[in-house]
Amino acid sequence: MEEKFAITKKAGILGIIGNIFLLIIKATVGFLSKSQAMIADSFNSAGDIFASLMTFIGNRIASAPDDEDHNLGHGKAEYIFSLFISIAMIVVSAKLLFDSVVTLILGSELKFSWFLVFVCIATIITKLFLYFYTSRGYKKYNSILLEASMKDHRNDCIVTSFTLISILLTLVGIYWFDGIVGIGISIWICYTGVTIFIESYNVLMDISVDDKTKDLILDIAHSYKEIKKVDSIISTPVGDRYLVFITICLDRKSFYF
User: Fold this and answer.
1) Residues 79 and 113 occupy one common structural domain
2) What's 167's domain CATH number?
């Protein structure tokens, strides 16, 4: 468990550092080249700093041991802060959708620049590194904070890849590609944000274990011949685990006084 929190903490710190780097180069190149698209993208990186900060803070709170006021620990902090990240994703997707529709209707003002190409490549490399690092941690520990952070890095990587393609296509006079792809990606990012929101919301609302897990619990209980009946199974999520209460009926002969 301590290793999980250590990896999540490192993922948050690396995300903050990486996104600050991207914010600086995007803002610098955007203002120097007077590219409104790159200036807008720098604000997206500011949002990514927020997401990484949420990962760091949420992990720090969740890693705190149980105490007198929090007998079950602080694991749900992961889901509270992943909720914040999901909301940030939905807001970003709405802004991207709006900008893409406007671009499609009014026409793209995107112009080719080697500075823009350099920033796109730097962004893709940075985001790929952050994605693979958080993905490895998520697959090992199934942390929703790492999942939210991983998907945020993945989304940025894909968006920037298509932005790079759009920039290169301007060399052959194709300007409409940026708007079409932007609409598709914004819908996909919104869907990702909504799924993370629902998952976090369900845990915070104390959703029960699924039917498959209940059947597994029943099978384990029935493997003891002393247990004659299982009256109820009550469960509550605690971080990435569940606390399960089982009410059972035992044969009176099973007790010896």
Assistant:
1) yes
2) 1.20.1510.10
